[in-house]
Amino acid sequence: MRILVLGGTGYLGRHVAARLRALPGALILTAGRSPAAEFGADLAADPAERLAGTLAAAAPDAVVNCAGATGGDPVTLAEVNARGPAVLCAALREAAPAARLVHLGSAAEYGPGVPGTPVPESAPACPVTLYGATKLAGTVAIGASAPDGVVLRVGNPVGPGAPPASLPGRLAALLRSAGQDPEAVLRLGDLSAHRDFVDVRDVAQAVALAVITPGLLPPVLNIGAGKAVTVRELAHGLAGRAGFRGRWAESVGGSARSGPVSWQCSDISAAQRALGWRPAHTLDDALTALWSATAERVP
């Protein structure tokens, strides 16, 4: 089975590609802007004809789209998250119409949740951030244009290799720098929001199952831990692993990407039914793996 992973050199893409390589008989190919990818591809800029040529050369049985922008200016977000999936669908129709498409969406597409109530896929998508809106546009494009496509709406991924642009990755770097200095001060934003944190390795497993499960899948499946915890709990859990002895300086108000959403949790029962998937790792597992991975990068 030939599987093409777009964005296969990024954070999620690396974990996804590694898990897919463990599938019996699978040949994993990567595509993206990185020189490390086997095929050059830029979903933000490539015309459909060029992308179709890339797909024809790769001849995939399945395509996994891990490419996406989590931050940046509005044009960048729209080009990568909205235009990209639409162009990909057009290219697939031309060059690989029988290939299954597995696309990584985001729980941010739902917008604010109701405390205590996990959000099912049937809930209205009402994003309140530009990031969520552009991810939703990509989901709509796939639902309308990919006959054998599924969007995995991922919660907040945590685990080894988390990039500095993410809160877990940035916090791990800050804690590694602070060491056990009792005078250290960590200046962070508001940590009171509730989020559904899912281990990145569980996300990769969900993708693998979405690739190999026979028959048509539901158009959207939530992938999360199925429980909401405060961002503060994540931060303190990571600090405990670091032996942090300093103090926190927590400001009020979140980032532009997540600030308007104070509570978010996904109902993951549909993924359990459709894929036989459920998370195998706890938040503690994810934080332990994240902290261990940061130690491996220190000279």
UniProtKB/TrEMBL annotation:
Q: Which domain of life is it from?
A: Bacteria
Q: Where is the NAD-dependent epimerase/dehydratase domain?
A: 3-224
Q: What's the family?
A: Belongs to the NAD(P)-dependent epimerase/dehydratase family.
| Record's protein name | Reductase
The record lists the organism as Streptomyces alanosinicus
